[in-house]
Amino acid sequence: MTRVRPANTSSTSSLLRTTIQSVASDLPIDTISRIANAIESMHQRHEANKQDAPEDVFFRRLDEARAAESTTGIHWSDLPMQFGLALQCAQLDHCVSGLHGLLELLHADESACASGQAGLGGDLTERLFYASRALASSARMTLQKMIEHIGSAQV
Predict the structure, then answer these.
(1) Does the model's pTM come out above 0.70?
(2) Number of domains within the chain
(3) Which residue, 51, 93, 131, 136, is the most exposed by fewest CB within 10 angstroms?
(4) What is the pLDDT of residues 46-81, one digit of tens each?
(5) CA distances to 50, 64, 96, 138 from 61, in Å
(6) Helix axis angle, 122-154 relative to 83-114, nearest 10°?
(7) Cβ(62)–Cβ(55) under 8 Å?
C-alpha cells in the first residue's frame, strides 16, 4: 500500500489537515479520504440538526463569554479594539458589576441590622466581604494590565 502526503483537495477537509497534519503523511490516501468524508457527513448532519433543535444555551453562553459580553449585553469584542483589551474590559465590567451587587447586599444587611431585624448573619456577611475584596483586587489587577497594554501600544 502506497503512503502519500494528502493533496489539498476538496475531499480532504482543512479541519482534517489541521487536526492530523503531522500524522497525515503516514496514512494511505484512501484512509484520509474516508476520514474526510466522515467529517463532512458529520458536519452536514450537525448543520441539519441545528435547524431542527432548540437553541443550545450552554454553547451560546460559551460563545458569549468568548465574545467578551458586557453586563449591559454589548460585546466588547465588537468594539474597535484588540481582542485582548476587549477581554480585559469585559473582566473589569464583570468585577465592577459583581462588586456593586455585593455592596448592595451588604448595605441592605447593615440597614436591616440597624433597624433591629435579622440580617444575613455574621458568617455569610464575612464571606461577602471576602468576595468583595477579591472582586476589587481582580478589578485593580485588570485595570493595571489595561494601563500597561495601552501604554505599550503607544510606544
Answers:
(1) no
(2) 2
(3) 51
(4) 777 767 666 677 777 666 666 677 777 777 777 787
(5) 16, 5, 20, 22
(6) 150
(7) no
